[in-house]
Amino acid sequence: MKTELISFLSTDKLELPGLLYTPQKPTKKVAVWLHGMGDSGVIYNPLRINLLARELTARGIALLAFNNRGAHNKKRLKIRDDSLPKEERCYQAGTHHELIADCLHDIDGAVLFLADRGYEELYLAGHSSGANKICVYDFLSRDNPFSKYVLAGAGDDCGLWYMGLGDARFWKTLSLAKQHVADGKPHRTMPKYSGMSPFSAQSAADLIDPDGPYNTFPFFEVAHKRLGHKELFQEFGGITKPTLVLYGEYDEAAASAGSVADAVRILKKHANHHTTIDYEIIADTNHTFDEKEADLAHIIATWLAGDIA
Asked: The whole model's pTM is what?
């Protein structure tokens, strides 16, 4: 296996760093990995990524794992656009500032980079909010080059925030966040009393709006009560490509469903029944697959390679 430190531009010209793992024998197959929120960027989680890379490259599949615009909690990124004045070539990024729909720019930038490298068969895998991003990407970019998806630890962020904040504070916080955005202050830090500090107003509104694009796995709304008017699981239910859904047995991100088993039952009910979707629950581990990273890597790699049904 060969490892290369690379960078590429998103389609809105942000410079994103990553790691490209390639097998000794040339291949046209490559998987793209989307990390979850904040400091779970790939550069700082070598165990999971290295294990996945070894499993994939052993089966003739390369791996591109990159830090998307949501890496770090707060991060300034460079805009590589000489047509802009120097003072405008800076972009406020990180989990506390990103909008989930902007994942299209990051993923499509990775696609262009891989096309230049000669890759032809592409797979897209994501963990936590990375899984949510895959669903949003698929919904907004149905005609895309990926042939398979892997959704690991997909969570109900909106429902979990509702459970944590309580009814009254949840709606007040959402209203405040939307008001800041409407007032032209999208990057204003949410106050501590809102329960969502230090998220920016735009990210807070994106995360907890029941009718927004982030609400892709609304387990709470199925198990308890409706919070919005958006069609439940419209993004996940629209997936038509072969997909693997993975959870740890004690995944905290599925708590709003009751249990992981409940979450899987809900997903099966709302999935496109004409789509091949496989479900795996890894025993005795949590949302981050602690101490079961090797199992996670093996399952993903064998499924992508077609070694298991």
From this structure: 0.95
